[in-house]
């Protein structure tokens, strides 16, 4: 089920002004077995306004699913091809040369690692989702501030996914990237993962140099849109490999949708 929240406040003329809109997608769970889903009651519209709300929500859900895991469109493939042709054309050979105003996507990575303590648990004995969101937002904000070399503000949070519960005692990793840019606006992505406790002893026995890397399990994905307050034109992020190109296109879609919705681009 989808739950919508609107936050309003009176302005100086005592008119209600919308400050915030949030959409939450919930999955019901069996109270006796948290791993089993249960069916929720459907909604029946009693007024035209309610019917419009339900239909609009169905359209939003359909669009959201079409964005997640979406294959590149022909237009996007042509866009990437044009980008690389322009990059290679600067050197006269197959070498890719970045301009001073550009930055490789993989070089924007900023990460932190933490241990999950009991003070951050929820009523079910798992790590509270709000704690994960705060840590991800702080990392994305810090990364964006470093990227812009100045103050930034948060404009939107989109496509936040809680894929897997985080347990007490887990080693928690957050990796952030700048995935797309447009003028003074920056799209940030943060992926949270935990080290699989069952595989860590196995890796320790073989003295793996990258202990824990191969044993990571993704738990959350966060996407944030930031605005550079002091620098009106930030570095343009450029993907270097195919995997980065997919990440870039995903960020580009989210950024364009946010700008259309909030900034009226």
UniProtKB/TrEMBL annotation:
Domain of life: Eukaryota
Domain HotDog ACOT-type: 106-232
InterPro entries: HOTDOG_ACOT, HotDog_dom_sf
GO biological process terms held by the UniProt record: acyl-CoA metabolic process
GO terms under cellular component: mitochondrion
Keywords of the record: Hydrolase, Repeat, Transit peptide
MF terms (GO), sorted A to Z: fatty acyl-CoA hydrolase activity
UniProt record similarity statement: Belongs to the acyl coenzyme A hydrolase family.
Protein name as annotated: HotDog ACOT-type domain-containing protein
Originating species: Caenorhabditis japonica
């Amino acid at each position: 089920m989808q739950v919508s929240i609107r936050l309003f406040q009176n302005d100086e003329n005592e008119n209600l002004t919308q400050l915030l809109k949030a959409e939450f997608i919930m999955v019901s769970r069996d109270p006796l077995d948290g791993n089993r889903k249960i069916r929720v009651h459907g909604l029946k519209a009693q007024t035209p306004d309610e019917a419009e709300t339900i239909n609009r929500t169905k359209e939003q859900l359909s669009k959201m699913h079409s964005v997640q895991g979406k294959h590149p469109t022909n237009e996007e493939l042509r866009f990437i091809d044009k980008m690389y042709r322009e990059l290679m054309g600067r050197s006269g050979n197959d070498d890719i040369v970045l301009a001073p105003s550009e930055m490789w996507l993989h070089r924007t990575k900023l990460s932190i690692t933490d241990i999950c303590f009991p003070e951050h648990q929820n009523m079910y004995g798992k790590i509270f989702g709000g704690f994960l969101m705060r840590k991800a937002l702080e990392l994305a904000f810090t990364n964006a501030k470093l990227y812009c070399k100045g103050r930034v503000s948060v404009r939107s949070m989109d496509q936040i996914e809680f894929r897997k519960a985080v347990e007490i005692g887990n080693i928690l990793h957050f990796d952030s990237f700048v995935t797309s840019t447009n003028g003074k606006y920056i799209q940030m992505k943060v992926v949270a993962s935990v080290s699989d406790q069952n595989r860590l002893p196995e890796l320790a026995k073989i003295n793996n140099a990258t202990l824990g890397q191969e044993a990571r399990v993704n738990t959350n994905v966060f996407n944030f849109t930031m605005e550079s307050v002091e620098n009106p034109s930030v570095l343009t992020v450029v993907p270097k490999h195919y995997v980065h190109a997919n990440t870039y296109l995903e960020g580009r879609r989210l950024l364009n949708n946010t700008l259309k919705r909030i900034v009226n681009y």
